[in-house]
Amino acid sequence: MIDFQLDDRSGVATYLQLAQQVRHALRLGLLEPGDKLPTAKEVVAKLAINPNTVLKAYRELEREGLLVVRQGLGTFVRTTLGPKDRAEQAEQAELQQRLADWVRAARQAGLVDDDIEAMYRAVMRHDTEGLHDTRTGS
After folding, report:
1. Is the confidence at residue 134, as pLDDT, over 50?
2. What does the pLDDT look like over 76-95, one tens digit per residue?
3. Are residues 91 and 43 in the same domain?
4. Is 37 inside a domain boundary?
5. What is the pTM of this model?
6. CB 89: neighbour CB atoms within 10 A?
7. Is residue 49 part of a domain?
8. Domain that holds residue 124
9. Out of 1, 25, 59, 106, which residue is the most buried by the measure of CB atoms under 10 Å away?
């Protein structure tokens, strides 16, 4: 089951943080079709937020076709965003392990989470710009 966390400093609306965490869990294979999400009441008890916030996040994901609500039973994962076959799953698991190793090494080198995130964002921005340049020929 997913364990929601909120970042009050992010500036991102709470319902969007919840929805994004579900999407990430779907991409990483942590949630699979048929898995039940926590009830709004459970999320409210853990995070001390308004139940409508949880319901708004779930409704957005339902509109996207990722979740299905079964009246009286709960909210369930309808589809995944993760790798489709075992080869893709294995490759993703390997990449995730390499990233975890890199983060551990960065922390051992004295970097804090903000430093690591800044480096990640810089690399992502640079990589995306490089892809853009390749596609456009500029």
Report:
1. no
2. 999 988 767 778 778 878 88
3. no
4. yes
5. 0.70
6. 13
7. yes
8. 86-136
9. 25
